Amino acid sequence: MKIPAVLAVTLYVALASATGQERRNKHLRPVLERRAEAPLQPIVGTKGSEILVPENHAIDDQNPNSLKPPTTDGGLLGNLKWSFSHSMMKLQEGGFVREQVVTDLPSSEDFSAAQNHLKKGAIRQMHWHDINEWGIVTVGSVLVGAVDHQGKNQVFRADKGDIWFFPKGEGHVIQGLSDAGAEYLLVFDNGDFDAKGRTLNVADWVVHTPLSVLAKNFGVSQDVFKTVPKSVGSIIQGGVSDSSMSILSPNGKLEGNSSYHFQASKVPYTNAPGGGGRYLIVDSKNFPITSTLAAQLVEVKPGAMRELHWHPNGAEWLYFQSGHARATVWVGGGNARTFDFQEGDTAVFPDNAGHYVENTHPNETLYYIEIFKAPKVLDFSLQQWLALTPPDIVAQILNVSVETVKSFKTNKQVIIAGNV
Ligand SMILES: *[C@@H]1O[C@H](CO)[C@@H](O)[C@H](O)[C@H]1NC(C)=O
Ligand SMILES: *[C@@H]1O[C@H](CO)[C@@H](O)[C@H](O)[C@H]1NC(C)=O
Ligand SMILES: *[C@@H]1O[C@H](CO)[C@@H](O)[C@H](O)[C@H]1NC(C)=O
C-alpha cells in the first residue's frame, strides 16, 4: 500500500494522539519512517515480542510469514527465495542485464536466470553458451536469429509470452523491436552462469584473433577488420534490422519439431479442474527441442491456490511475474518454512519437496512460472493420492473420518478456487 508522505504524517499524528502519549514515544521515528499503521511485530499468541532495535519495516511488510511464521512451520530449512531487486544491474548502452545465480541462492544449483532489457534497435550480440538456454518475452517484442550445426536457420519475431529454447552451443542473436523497450527472462540449466567459457560472444572472439587469420578465414583483406571495436558489451545500441526475414539458408529452415520458437502467446491455457485459474505446460511434448527446462506457466485467481503437490523429477525454479503469493515448502523430518513472494522474486524449491503456492491478494491475479531441469513437467497431487488409496487406511493414518477421505477428489485439481 502506497501512502503519500503528507497523508502518512497526518495519519500518523491522528493515530498517535488516538493511542496516547506512551505509545507515541515508543514508536517515535524519523519523518520518512512514520507509518499509518502500527508496524508488524513478531508476536503470535503468547509467543514472541516486539522488536526494539530500529527495523526495516518495508521488508517485514513484504515477508509477513517470515516475521510471524505459521505455527505449522518447523525445523530448519535454508533460504529458498531471491529478489532480482538484490541483483547487481549490469548497465549497457542499449539496456541492462541482472542475474540470479547459485551464489545468490544456494538451492539454485541447477538453475541460473537473468532479466534483460533491450531498447528499440538494441542488439544482444551474437553468442552461444555451453549450457541450455530457455527464454520468455515478458514485455514487448524481440527479433531472434539462430543457425544450427547443419546450417539450417531461423529468424523469428517473439512477442510477449513467447518462449524459446537454445540447446548448448547454438549461436543466436536478439534485437529489441518495441518503441517502449522489450524485456525477456532467461533461465539456464546450471547455477554457475558466470563460470569461464559459459558465454561466448562473437565480437570478443574476433578481436582476439590475429588479423592475418581473419583475412585468410573470410577471404578478405586484413584492413576489413581494423574497425572492429576492441571492447564490445553484451548489448549494443543499433538500428532495427530491415532484412531480417529474408535470410534463406540453402540448407533449409528450422521449423516444426526443429523450431527454437514456441508461440505461447497464441496457445490457449488449460482451465484448472479446481476452478482456481489456468495453466500452460511447455515441455518436450509440445516443444520437442526442449531437452531440458520444462515449463509450466500458472495464472492463479485472487485467493486461489496451486494445490498441495510435489515433483518427482528435480528441483523447481520459480519466477513471480505479477501478484502476491505465499508458499510453504516441506522437506520431510518436520522441516517446513513459509515464504512470501511478489513481482520480481525468484525461488528454488528442493527436489521432491511438498508445497503449495497461494495467491494471497484479494483482487490481483497471480502470474508465475515453474521451471524444471527435465524434459517434461510431472507432478503428484496430494489430494489425488489420498483419494486413490483405500479410504479406511487414510482415515486411520490421519485420524479423520472415512467420509472425509471419500470426499477427496480423484482428479488433479491443479489450481483450487478460494478466498483470501
Ligand atoms: C514432432 O514431435 C512430436 C512430439 O515429440 C511427435 O509426436 C511428432 O511425431 C513429431 N513430428 C515429426 C514430423 O517428426
Ligand atoms: C480490493 O478491492 C476492493 C474493492 O475494490 C478494495 O476496497 C480493496 O482495497 C482492494 N484490496 C487491495 C488489497 O487492494
Ligand atoms: C483422534 O481424534 C480424536 C477426536 O476425534 C481424538 O480424541 C484422538 O486423541 C485422536 N487420536 C490421536 C492419536 O491423535
Automatic annotation (TrEMBL):
Cofactor list: Mn(2+)
Molecular function in Gene Ontology: metal ion binding
Limits of the Cupin type-1 domain: 86-226, 260-406
CDD domains, sorted: cupin_OxDC_C
Signal peptide start and end residues: 1-20
Pfam families in UniProt: Cupin_1 (PF00190)
GO BP: oxalate metabolic process
Catalytic residues in the record: E370 (proton donor)
Annotated keywords: Manganese, Metal-binding, Signal
UniProt keyword Manganese present: yes
Top-level lineage group: Eukaryota
Binding site for Mn(2+) 1: H127, H129, E133, H172
Binding site residues for Mn(2+) 2: H309, H311, E316, H355
Cofactor note: Binds 2 manganese ions per subunit.
Gene3D superfamilies the UniProt entry points to: Jelly Rolls
Protein name, as recorded: Oxalate decarboxylase oxdC
